[in-house]
Known about the structure:
Blueprint: E1 3-5, H1 13-21, E2 25-27, E3 39-40, E4 43-44, H2 47-58, H3 60-67, H4 69-84, H5 93-119
Amino acid sequence: MKEVSADKAYLGAENLLTTLRNGAIPYIPFKSNSVPDSRGSYGPKSELWTRMYHFYSLHRAEFLTHYHKRSNVETTFHMIKSKFGQRLRSKTLTAQINEALCKVLSHNLCVVIQSVHELGIESNFGQSVDA
């Protein structure tokens, strides 16, 4: 894990610290009313929270580049749920994992097929690379 992107609801010193302790960089945007030198509900803001706030404020474009990767993931989940349904019907955990992976595979195949038709990409599925 290199990065963690989350929405503003997860902005908190404990979440930031846990992410960093696990070797990842937290990309959690700050709320519009966030102030670096204020006190939180549990006392003064941590040094980590303040440093992350300044990084967010001073390097907004770089921060948002990382954060918006989350948008791609959310869009993909939405597409999969819209096309194949939100629920998993399998009973066991292993079967549920396999069902979810099948939905992801099916989504990827649909995207490839759509791209072939819309963009006019020539496909050579099943042909040898040497052919």
